[in-house]
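discrete fold record:
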Amino acid sequence: MSLNDLKLNSKLPKTGTSIFAVMTQLAREYNAVNLSQGFPDFPVSEELIRLVDKYMKKGCNQYALMPGVPELRMAISKMFTENHDVNYHPDKEINIVAGATQGLYTTISAFVRKRDEVIIFEPAYDSYAPAVEVNGGVVKFVELHFPGFRIDWGKVEKLISHKTKMIIINTPHNPTGTLLYEDDLLQLERLTKGTDILVLSDEVYEHLTFDKLQHLSVCRFPGLRKRSLVIGSFGKTFHATGWKLGFVLAPEILMKEFRKLHQFIVFTVNTPIQHAIAEYLQDS
């Protein structure tokens, strides 16, 4: 029996190689400007690199705790208190992950079951839908229209049913660069009130806002915070995408479920970089 005779039942039969990987390969092949990927073309802070080197030489090279280095979780908690006036408990409500994509995948895997429906706004980061589908979920798309790429909440309301398990939002938005405003989040709060719908809020570009606009996290809205998991990324914030370090914030009841899968997907992530970023964050 040859390998070609094996009968495989693909979990993602319609999914090929990520468009990001395809376009990046073409950019390298033709020495072209790569507009497809969040790939910074400026250096990482020399101070941050020095701190990584410091903690490697200090011996911080073994497994960290499963939720992440305590100093980093405390620094994140402080950051969200200062930026959003909310308090996430560093032990019970914050978890360090191997990049935002892992945080997204683990969150979806922890909560989406077979035939659960998940609302996604497109264009969208290309990991959302496959993560839903591989876990047996059903994607319901809401299209964002040029030029404003704003959400039509009337369409969202019509899509919500007893099967709706999760709504995935992304602000600042990839790839359009638009933001969700207070009215958007109040609408989302209204539509999910009295339901068991979870909100997965991809906020990896939180610190990359322009034109004096303000990023509004879901955690600022009490009705959303209690049902939301917030995803953040140090790779994006410190333009060190190859380090793959991010975090997830969630109420304790949701974080307990998240960690059940996190421990078996990666268990823990890069130790010296966690220590380095924890110290780096002391300088606001």
